[in-house]
Amino acid sequence: MRGSSAKRRSGAFAVHVACPKRAVRRYSALVLRSGCPVPLAPSLLAMAWLVQPAHALSDDDAQAILQIEAQRLPALALNDFVGHSDPATRARAARALGRLRTATALAPLKKLVEDPDLVVRTEAAWALGMTPGAELLLLARLSVEVEPACRAALLDALGREGGPASLPILRQSLDLRPPALHPALAARAAARSIGRMGLRDLEAAREPEISGALLDQRRRVDGGLRLDCAYALARLRLAQLPLDQRADLLTWAQDEPIATVQAYLVRAAGNLVPGPDLDALLTVTAQDPDEGVRVATARAAGAAAWAGVTALLADADRGVRREAMAAVAKVPTLDAHALLLPVVEAGDDLDAAETPAPASIPACSTPQLPCRPWPRPAPSRTRASGWTRPAPPRSAQPPWTPS
């Protein structure tokens, strides 16, 4: 409900005091709606008009930075914005330097990553992750950075540009415990970075020490952290694991309560060497009520050569059936032709084939028919007045004669 007291209305106006034009518009609207002037101290109105909004990126500067990005100009063209007095302008310049993706941006980014403003440092950390050769600069800044949000951005950037030298600090960050009721920003960023290193085929990220650290997070309460660790395990594509880690992964994949996390874990288990324990896991997850878990099971079945994937060909979800069809073709012990031919004949949704039209119907038996359409009757009601008029009668005979 809208407040009717002048005190509440003047308080609503005070929210917009940082934007003078918006403040005046808001005050005028309150006067018009209420029908009487709203009490407002003249000094407050003067302050609202004189105070300029802080950390505002001007339109001219935004357009200039955008032109530098679009034309792929050298990083030197952004020097004026890197040294700008406005933090929002410096943050926008940092993002532009990252989008240039050139090593010449390292010098200005080194200055921005040491900026006193947290937003500027966070944007510079993201930009370093997009800049070739930024690993040493990222590691050096991590040794002195204390803000959790900026440290998470630096760790996340190591996943794009880091190498084997970055793995020790990522491994240490996985075990960091944030204060109570605070998200584990550093640990989540470290897990994502390890997963990105797996996508880059960095063999050092597949060491048992790294996989063991990821599996140790399965008992953490933070579901987001478990999700990022499961993502990393799936992207590392680990074929060989120590026996204790293999058992921990299969148990975690079966007991995980969050469906998205479980789907990633099933994909990670599908990369392991096939065995009876893996077959038992896929048998359980193939009956999971969540279709995402069943899709992950079908995809893992193709990599694990699990013959039980044939049960998913009759799944109620179309996406599960599609992945099961692709997996059947990858399992060498299955006759893909005999299993998939009935599916192709029945259609994509596994329903019965459509009954062909009988030849006794002239419209179906005549190969060529005239293309002249029937005349469309006039509308029986006008939109403006709603007046109803009779529609013209249709002709008893069509306007064409069948041949």
Question: How would you describe what is shown here?
Answer:
- Helix 10 packs parallel to helix 12 (185-199) and helix 15 (243-255) runs antiparallel to helix 16.
- 35% of the residues are buried.
- The protein has 21 helices and no strands.
- 56% of the residues lie in helices and 0% in strands.
- Residues 1-18, 47-52, 350-371, 382-386 and 395-403 have low confidence and may be disordered.
- The chain has helices at residues 6-14, 20-34, 42-50, 59-70, 79-82, 87-100, 106-112, 118-129, 135-142, 148-161, 167-174, 185-199, 208-215, 223-236, 243-255, 259-270, 276-285, 291-304, 318-328, 336-346, 362-365.
- With 403 residues, the chain is mostly helical.
- Among the domains are: 6-50, no CATH class; 274-348, Alpha Horseshoe (Leucine-rich Repeat Variant).
- The radius of gyration is 32 Å and the shape is elongated.
Task: Sum this structure up briefly.
It is built from 21 helices and no strands. It is mainly alpha-helical. The termini are far apart.
**Percentage of helical residues?**
55-70%
The average pLDDT value, as a whole number, equals 81
List SSEs in N-to-C order.
HHHHHHHHHHHHHHHHHHHHH
Can you tell me the overall shape? elongated
Q: Structural class, judged by helices and strands?
A: mainly alpha
The CATH architecture name of the domain at 274-348 reads: Alpha Horseshoe
CATH topology of the domain at 274-348: Leucine-rich Repeat Variant
Rg over CA atoms: 32 Å
Strand share of the residues?
under 5%
Compute the separation of the termini in Å: 72 Å
Major beta-sheet overview: none
- Kindly state the number of beta strands: 0
User: Count of helices?
Assistant: 21
CATH class of the domain at 274-348 equals: Mainly Alpha
Oligomer: single chain
pLDDT < 50 runs, ≥5 residues? 1-18, 47-52, 350-371, 382-386, 395-403
